[in-house]
């Protein structure tokens, strides 16, 4: 004990003191996290372009069932996706990775949710503005049409009407429920 | 009394029917049009025409045909009846202030006739109609 110098002793005392006075749930650390977290959210690069396209007043169904993994190509919403899944690229199934911009122009189709066996209107918005994500390529072509029917083709780069046409990845937004079922 | 009741039932059934029409028209709009023309019919300037205010084409000669013969409408993947329905829906929804007072909704037969003759030189036809509208 006596061999330790005054720096070690000083650190030990202050560390023990600090440990006695604070806990992992200490109010101060929570407040700090909250302040820092709240302040940094608006700093994240994020585009709201797609928000307008997506805002249909329809609540995203939270019924997911077996095919509920947004990072899997079998995820029910991806029944006609052709591209990299945003959920593997830093975004989610319904939001684009940071630094990309969601295309307002999209292609729309329907997919059946196995959890409730109903058909939902799905909008495949591309995330634009950065180079290809390269993760989780998924190419399901339910009801896909050739490119000479452009409005119903998933082979098109839907970043075509965005400020930059660089394609990164794709999201699948639920716009509504199909009638009659 | 009995007549009033019968009328009420008829009106109720008619309302149900027209509501169902509007619903299926809106559904077809989302599925076949909204991807490009957007949820509010705003389009993208210089790339995709806006649907807001398209009713003004109906006020000039040839405009009624034009709205059906443009590629997006004539080549859409819906049948004539559905096309007439969604076209009327677009006009009422996005262009209520530009509709001529004597506007008569499209029907399947009329739409079917016009779409058999799709426009090739769309821009030229559009400019001609727009100049007619302005004068």
Layout of strands and helices, then pairs:
The complex is a heterodimer of chains A (181) and B (135).
Chain A: H1 6-21, H2 27-40, H3 49-54, E1 82-84, E2 101-102, E3 107-113, E4 118-128, E5 137-139, E6 167-177
Antiparallel strand pairs in A: 1-5, 2-4, 3-4, 4-6
Chain B: H1 2-37, H2 63-69, H3 71-74, H4 80-94, H5 108-115, H6 122-134
Helix pairs in contact in B: 1-4, 4-5
What does this structure look like?
Chain A has 181 residues and is of the alpha+beta class. Chain A has two domains: 6-42, no CATH class; 47-177, Methylamine/Aralkylamine dehydrogenase light chain (Electron Transport Ethylamine Dehydrogenase, Sandwich), CATH 2.60.30.10. Chain A has three helices and six strands. The longest helix of chain A has 16 residues, at 6-21. Chain A is elongated and about 85 Å long. With 135 residues, chain B is an all-alpha fold. Chain B has a single domain (2-134), classed as Orthogonal Bundle (Cytochrome Bc1 Complex, Chain D, domain 2). Chain B is 61% helix and 0% strand. Chain B contains six helices and no strands. Chain B has helices spanning 2-37, 63-69, 71-74, 80-94, 108-115, 122-134. The longest helix of chain B is centred in the first third of the chain and has 36 residues, at 2-37.
Radius of gyration of chain B: 17 Å
Biggest interface, CB < 8 A:
A-B, 23 and 20 residues
* Mean pLDDT figure of chain A: 82
Distance between the termini of chain A: 79 Å
Strand count, sense and barrel status of the largest sheet of chain A are: 4 strands, antiparallel
Give me the CATH superfamily of chain B.
Cytochrome c-like domain
Number of separate domains of chain A: 2
Sketch the topology of chain A as an H/E string, one letter per element: HHHEEEEEE
Pick out the low-confidence regions of chain B.
none
Major sheet details of chain B: none
Counted by DSSP, the helix tally of chain A is 3
Radius of gyration of chain A: 24 Å
In the CATH hierarchy, what is the architecture of chain B at level 2? Orthogonal Bundle
Q: Would you identify the CATH architecture of the largest domain in chain A?
A: Sandwich
Structural class of chain A, by secondary structure, is alpha+beta
């Amino acid at each position: 004990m006596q061999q330790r110098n005054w720096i070690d002793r000083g650190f030990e005392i202050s560390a023990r003191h600090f440990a006695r006075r604070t806990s992992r749930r200490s109010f101060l650390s929570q407040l700090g996290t909250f302040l820092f977290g709240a302040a940094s959210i608006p700093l994240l690069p994020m585009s709201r372009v797609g928000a307008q396209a997506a805002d249909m007043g329809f609540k995203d169904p939270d019924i997911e069932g077996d095919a509920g993994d947004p990072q899997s190509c079998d995820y029910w919403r991806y029944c006609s996706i052709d591209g990299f899944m945003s959920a593997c690229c830093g975004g989610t199934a319904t939001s684009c990775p940071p630094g990309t911009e969601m295309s307002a122009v999209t292609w729309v189709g329907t997919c059946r949710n196995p959890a409730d066996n109903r058909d939902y209107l799905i909008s495949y918005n591309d995330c634009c503005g950065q180079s290809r994500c390269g993760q989780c390529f998924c190419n399901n072509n339910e009801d896909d049409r050739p490119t000479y029917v452009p409005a119903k083709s998933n082979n098109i780069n839907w970043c075509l009407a965005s400020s930059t046409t660089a394609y990164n990845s794709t999201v699948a937004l639920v716009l509504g429920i199909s009638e009659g079922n | 009394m009995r007549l009033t009741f019968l009328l009420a039932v008829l009106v109720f059934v008619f309302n149900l029917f027209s509501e169902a029409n509007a619903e299926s028209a809106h559904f077809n709009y989302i599925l076949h049009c909204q991807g490009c023309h957007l949820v509010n019919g705003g389009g993208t300037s210089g790339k995709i025409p806006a649907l807001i205010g398209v009713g003004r084409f109906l006020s000039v000669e040839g405009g009624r045909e034009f709205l059906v013969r443009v590629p997006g409408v004539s080549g859409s993947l819906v049948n004539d009846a559905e096309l007439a329905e969604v076209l009327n829906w677009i006009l009422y929804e996005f262009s209520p202030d530009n509709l001529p007072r004597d506007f008569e909704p499209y029907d399947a037969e009329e739409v079917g006739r016009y779409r058999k003759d799709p426009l090739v030189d769309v821009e030229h036809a559009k400019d001609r109609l727009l100049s007619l509208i302005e004068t």
